[in-house]
Amino acid sequence: MAQSSKDGATISDPKYIKLLELQETEKQLDKKIAELNEKFEVVSKTYVAMLNTYNETKDATQTILGALARVENVSVEKLHHDYALPISDSLQ
């Protein structure tokens, strides 16, 4: 006699076999999603930390350029030009 599931389908029933396969695929996909979420969290935290460091460095640089501009009695824009610094954060 063939074994049956709790809903009465036999283990040899193609629909039941397909259901079991889909349930296994779902478990594997759930595991993969969890792994990707963990990786995303690490990458996201790293990116935010790097962005904070960049912003702090940029702020300090602007403070120094402002002080230097006052000492030399020139504009900050002129210092950007003299030191070949970009005027904006644009990557263009």
TrEMBL record:
Top-level taxon in the UniProt lineage: Eukaryota
Keywords: DNA damage, DNA repair
Gene3D superfamilies: 1.20.5.170
Database matches in InterPro entries: DNA-repair_Swi5
Pfam entry (one): Swi5
Function: Component of the swi5-sfr1 complex, a complex required for double-strand break repair via homologous recombination.
Family to which the UniProt record says this protein belongs: Belongs to the SWI5/SAE3 family.
Record-given protein name: DNA repair protein SWI5 homolog
Annotated source species: Dryococelus australis
